Amino acid sequence: MAAITCERRTYTDKSYGHIHSYAQLVLPVKGILSVTVNTAVFDDNCQNVIFIPPESYHSFHSHTNNQFLVLDIPPMYLPQSTRPVPECQLLDERWKAVRTLLAQEVKDTPVANSRLTDLFRYILRLLEQESCPASIRYIHDQYYRDITLQQLADIEHYQLSYYCEWFQKHFRVSPMEYIRRLRLENARRLLEDSEHTILQIAQQVGYRQQSTLTRLFQDYAGVTPAAYRNKNRIKAKYNQ
């Protein structure tokens, strides 16, 4: 993919998880959409704009009649100075104006043109204006270390109890659950893409013992790390 494209999409009640090398921006036109991006869960998304970074495992599903404008964004259009993370912004007047402009460009078929590229420069400024919370960036950078709730609360300058409530409200999971899912998601990628032993992978994502990763990964993926790796290798060999 060499150009930014935009099209109208609809989603069913069947959730299909996938990953790709480009970013996406999802703007609601009508209906309600539930979105999961790595460890972040954005439910009942009818008044929010969702940014999905490149190489992020994500899924969509909807139980209503729906339509969304979706931009597919090659990595070359994203700033290299920051590490992109999933982001959710309120569909305010600025984003509604963007939606109107996109709707004028996109009818029944995907669109890729210079006007779309110019508009994305403005979209990028909107994304940067409301950056991801500092504690989330810290988690994504340091997830493999021992992180305490107090550390995270201090980063946001919140009382511990308020931080936990704030986090649960915004991300629909507790901070510790968010970290656990992030570790397991990175373990999944290492199982697919590396030749490291399962013990080495466990230690790289923050677990001292292989047995800890095995137990948590089985709860997360339904299979052990070894079984997941073998299944993925068989699938890759079959697709060659």
From TrEMBL:
The keyword Oxidoreductase does not apply. One of its GO terms (molecular function) is sequence-specific DNA binding. The keyword Phosphoprotein does not apply. It comes from the Bacteria. Keywords: DNA-binding, Transcription, Transcription regulation. SMART domains: HTH_ARAC. This is AraC-like DNA-binding protein. The lineage of its organism: Bacteria, Bacillati, Bacillota, Negativicutes, Selenomonadales.
